[in-house]
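Ops channel
N.P.: pipeline sanity check, posting one input/output pair.
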């Protein structure tokens, strides 16, 4: 018998296991052969504190110090540059206000990213506080913390049955079994399915595919110091990656949970949107992939006990915010499970509570 069973080995589950390992014994089950296999391994790896709903922004801000300090810090300089064209003025101004960007002169934007097309880009806004996240270091830091405190992290173990017991929950995952007082559902795109196995009402989580293409550095330029480029209305983005660029149409296509892949037509749309504002043509795609961003119906994370099932804890609906919210989200989970007063403000805690979905 253990204190906590965590289902899911992405950043949500691993960070929860780390935090809970200070409170008791932990067993984590991950279906895939490695941690961070799905969405966590396919992240855009950005910290932008103003990105997301009000409760997500609260989690972002509460996570910053951990991301900046722990394991020597996992943040690096990047910046965010919003580029607007004729016809998307309203979306440009909405994004500029929401993300807290300052409009800059076009000459300044062209100096930052010399491939921007002066005939296509009519406005630009920027801030330097958006940062890269070393997602591998973040994930392994949490995993190391959990293991150092005695947590058992079992990969290649897909959860097959969950049943209530007088003491809490019993979980069978492949050849492995564990009983626990508390079951933490951090199964990402599969979280509603895990709930169904446990006889808990699903939340209506929506997995959405997001596609990414890796292209060579435009014109052979050194793009490493360029900011992330963002299309108004989150219509596309491009970001330096190991001397090259990743380009995404920022698609959100609802799908069933699966090991996602990019569709060629979707990638082509994203590349076309990017190419419309730059002077260098995309000559080839070196690699492509996709991940699943899973949202609750109101697009805020879900962190809290299921109101109808004692000992069943939701840590789900991270959308595209899982990496940057993980320090504060896992801290909140540990606070609630441990019976401590949450460090996060009361309004945000209420906005993240799964009971809100039942009330909606």
């Amino acid at each position: 018998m253990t204190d906590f069973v965590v289902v899911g080995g992405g950043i949500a589950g691993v960070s929860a296991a780390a935090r809970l390992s200070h409170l008791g014994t932990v067993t984590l089950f991950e279906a895939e052969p490695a941690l961070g296999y799905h969405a966590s391994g396919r992240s855009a790896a950005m910290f932008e504190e103003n990105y997301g709903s009000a409760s997500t922004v609260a989690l972002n801000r509460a996570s910053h110090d951990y991301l900046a300090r722990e394991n020597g810090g996992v943040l690096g300089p990047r910046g965010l540059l919003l580029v607007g064209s004729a016809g998307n003025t309203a979306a440009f101004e909405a994004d500029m206000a929401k993300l807290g960007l300052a409009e800059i002169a076009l000459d300044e934007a062209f100096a930052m990213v010399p491939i921007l097309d002066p005939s296509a880009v009519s406005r630009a806004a920027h801030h330097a506080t958006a940062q890269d996240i070393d997602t591998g270091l973040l994930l392994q830091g949490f995993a190391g913390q959990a293991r150092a405190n005695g947590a058992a992290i079992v990969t290649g173990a897909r959860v097959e049955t969950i049943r209530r017991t007088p003491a809490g929950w019993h979980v069978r995952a492949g050849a492995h079994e564990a009983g626990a007082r508390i079951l933490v559902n951090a199964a990402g795109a599969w979280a509603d399915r895990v709930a169904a196995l446990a006889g808990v009402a699903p939340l209506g989580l929506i997995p959405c595919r997001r596609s990414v293409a890796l292209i060579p550095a435009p014109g052979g330029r050194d793009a490493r110091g360029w900011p992330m480029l963002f299309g108004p209305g989150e219509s596309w983005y491009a970001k330096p990656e190991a001397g090259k660029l990743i380009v995404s149409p920022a698609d959100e296509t609802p799908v069933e949970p699966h090991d996602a892949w990019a569709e060629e037509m979707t990638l082509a749309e994203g590349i076309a949107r990017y190419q419309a504002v730059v002077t260098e043509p995309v000559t080839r795609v070196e690699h492509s992939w996709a991940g699943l961003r899973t949202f609750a119906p109101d697009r805020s994370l879900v962190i809290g006990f299921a109101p109808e099932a004692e000992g069943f804890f939701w840590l789900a609906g991270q959308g595209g915010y899982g990496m940057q919210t993980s320090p504060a989200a896992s801290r909140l989970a540990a606070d609630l499970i441990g019976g401590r007063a949450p460090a996060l403000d009361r309004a945000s805690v209420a906005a993240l509570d799964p009971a809100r979905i039942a009330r909606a």
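N.P.: looks fine end to end. The chain has a mean pLDDT of 96.
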